[in-house]
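Good morning,

Attaching, inline, the backbone tokens for the sequence recovery test we're adding to the shared suite. The designed sequence is right after.
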């Protein structure tokens, strides 16, 4: 594991320590977890976009090539 030095306003750090204590964790653990999530965020975002595109393509094949007219959509 590597060490990282970060400069943070003292008031911000104090509030973060209080919140972390209330949540039963430490500021170090919060920052470590955030950075781990941040590091994988782009890959997760790309995967989600690919999933949506794949679902979109499969939905198109299921509905066929029918073009709906206004009358079809509003027919009772």
């Amino acid at each position: 594991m590597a060490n990282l030095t970060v400069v943070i306003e003292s008031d911000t750090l104090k509030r973060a320590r209080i919140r972390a204590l209330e949540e039963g964790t430490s500021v170090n653990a919060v920052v470590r977890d955030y950075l781990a999530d941040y590091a994988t965020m782009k890959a997760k975002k790309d995967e989600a976009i690919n999933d949506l595109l794949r679902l979109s393509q499969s939905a198109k094949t299921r509905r066929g090539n029918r073009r709906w007219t206004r009358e079809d959509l509003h027919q009772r």
